[in-house]
Amino acid sequence: MRRPQFGMQMFKDRRSELARQAQGSIFILPSHPDMLRNNDVHHTYRQDSNLFYLTGWEEQESVFVFRPGQKPESVLFVRKKDLVRETWDGFRYGPDGVTANFGMDQAYLIDDFDQKLVELIKGADNIFYRFNIDPSFDTRFLKLLEERRLSARGQYNAPVRDPNELIGEMRLRKSEAEKKIMRKACEISAEAHVAVMKATRPGMNERELHGLFIYEAFKRGAGREGYGTIVATGANACTLHYTFNDQNTKDGDLLLIDAGAEKDFYTGDITRTYPVNGKFTDTQKRVYEAVLTANKEILKMIKPGFAFNKLQERTVEMLVDTMLDLKLLSGDKKKIIENLDYKKYYPHGVGHWLGLDVHDAGSYLLKNESRQIEEGMSFTVEPGLYIPIDDKSAPAELRGIGIRIEDNIVVTKDGCENMTAKCPKEISELEAIIGRG
């Protein structure tokens, strides 16, 4: 029998905390849909993050129903135990395996979900369900909700709310156990990046470097890539979410790699940019040092009580200074910022929450104002400059340069811990190891 990968106490504690906040509510969390890649071939399955966060459950075709303060409180609907299907698709726990191994009060077959939910939903003051993850399940859920309302003769009108209102806020603050896993994910990610740096040489294909990152990450214990890896040589780096990864590197080009390893469902998210031939040109160095300066200054600013949006404001100020210095833009700095003219060369934010998802759950605003940074929060710091190859208004020597430098931090009581500090980013460090593997 396959044993659960994770100790169940952590998940029980999370459910207890959610129950404390949401007495009288019901949470309906379906598993992530099993997605076809093409014809009858499926993408490798990965569980919905909220469902995993509360249960540790990894199988598809499941629904977790949580009813704080009611009995049964935790209910999991799962596929039946089927030895024939297990021959084809792998081990299944079945309902008996769920109650024996996952700390659930009750488990049923997924085929019984429609019948059971109408009863389980009775008495709930609030229903927490997230739409637009699986449209077919949305339709199913709305049909069942209407059945419940009809059976109550119009006396049941519980609102449907997004579970991230509560679960997202819980996920935003990382426990010590989560920090430990994230440090490992970042360590694996950093070491895989270093291995790619050492192997990089002109003439290599982006796909070849991508494959090397995967190999080095998996060799160190990663379970998956945390997201679609970006390996962008030359002007490809000016496409923020470049995905082709199929061009050959050229002597004199910069290489931008945005890649992270997922360990125990938590991911790292590192970006490094460096010359394919191991030596920055004076022009590349000038742009790179400006982005690096912004990266390091933002890291120094992070501490509890500091408004998150101030990090972006300061990043924009520094990068606009660079744009003016490089003659990418001209005019009044204040007006450039007010008019968002800088977005031509810096179109994204300086960071995002990090955890179970690479863009993790949690609100950036509280009462329509930027939230303050708190101890235990984890996010990225990733300033960048991107000068399109066809930008005729930019100095010719700058065209096609795209640079991003991204680190992963967790907030401490008086600052932050850079979990990706071991991934080189100083010019001297990079030039010392690129192509030296």
In short:
With 437 residues, this protein is of the alpha+beta class. The chain has helices at residues 9-21, 49-55, 83-89, 94-101, 113-120, 135-151, 167-172, 176-199, 206-219, 282-301, 308-325, 333-338, 427-433; strands at 25-30, 36-38, 41-42, 63-66, 74-78, 106-109, 126-128, 160-161, 224-225, 230-233, 254-259, 261-263, 266-267, 270-275, 365-366, 369-370, 378-381, 384-386, 402-404, 407-411, 416-418.
Descriptors for this entry?
single chain, alpha+beta, three-stranded antiparallel beta sheet, globular, 437 residues, 35% helix, six-stranded mixed beta sheet
* First and last CA, distance: 42 Å
Structural class: alpha+beta
Number of helices: 13
**Shape assignment:** globular
Order of neighbouring strands in the sheet with most strands: 6-5-4-1-7-8
* Rg, Å, rounded: 24 Å
Number of strands: 21
DSSP strand content:
15-25%
Report mean pLDDT, rounded to a whole number: 96
Extract low-pLDDT stretches.
Answer: none
- Sheet bearing the most strands, described? 6 strands, mixed
Portion of residues within helices: 25-40%
Protein described:
The longest helix has 24 residues, at 176-199. The mean pLDDT is 96. The protein is globular. It starts with 8 loop residues before the first helix and ends with a helix. Strand 7, helix 6 and strand 8 (160-161) form a beta-alpha-beta unit. 35% of the residues lie in helices and 17% in strands. With 437 residues, the chain is of the alpha+beta class. It has a six-stranded mixed β-sheet with strand order 6-5-4-1-7-8, covered by helices on one side. It is built from 13 helices and 21 strands.
